[in-house]
Amino acid sequence: LGQAGTNSNLLYLALIFIISGLGYKVAVVPFHSWSPDVYQGAPTPVTAFLSTASKTAGFVLLYRVLVNGFGPLAGSAAVASGFGGWTSILAFIAFLTMTYGNLAAITQTNAKRLLAYSSIAHAGFLLLGLIGVYAPGSPGGQFSQFGVQSLVYYLIAYTFTNLGAFGALAAISRVVGGDDLSDLNGLYKRNLGLAVLMAVFVLSLAGIPPLSGFWAKFMVFQAGWESGAIWLVVVAVLNTIISLYYYLRLLKAMFMHEPLTEERINVPAGINFSLVVSALIVFFMGLLPNFFLPAINSVTQIASGG
Question: What pTM was estimated for this model as a whole?
Fold first, then answer.
């Protein structure tokens, strides 16, 4: 990178290929087309893995490659700086990803497919956190420890929230034989505890306080704002408002519609335990975020190579 001035075209070409390859792995627009069909068609445990472990690994790798390998080419996603660098590329992708994911989720009638588009939208929010790690507003660049902290917090919160949501769907589908929105109708009458747990995960995905999803979004919004990408933060806030519609559709089905059948949904002890643990983590990460920050800071030090 010391000769970036003479080889800038090749370096940016390499960046485009890297972002494209890893963008496919984390399902950002325009590399997302595989995600909805795979999420809907795969067994729910596989879908849970793809939406969490695979996405987390992809973002960690994207962070290490871009920040540690191409830090001097970060540029800025701020309008006042005239854009430039890989942060501007990520900002454009983040704009498309969160907007498309949320708008596409609105019309879905299958719960897994809806969560697939939700996962695409969340990838856009995660890109905002990545921009906040190294989106300098001043010439020469300035690494933000808070930016990487917000990214790690979001990844942890998102992982447990999505694992819980897909785990609850797995428990439902094994009894009703499907995962359409209509299969969630009247869930509170068939298993109140499961309905409450699912509601916790849905509300966290929506970014409702005091759950971890709220602080995850708040932190990446703050990191993006401090980096100068104010326009993208405004877009992210608007997308968060849009997402409330389809998350409320899930809650409406569970608590306001009559069930298709009165058959009780019994959850195996192992699945029930994992759902409760995930819900507790989601709740306490949101209720006591400062309690978790020291551990997250340690993780960020490792992620930063420190």
Answer: 0.91
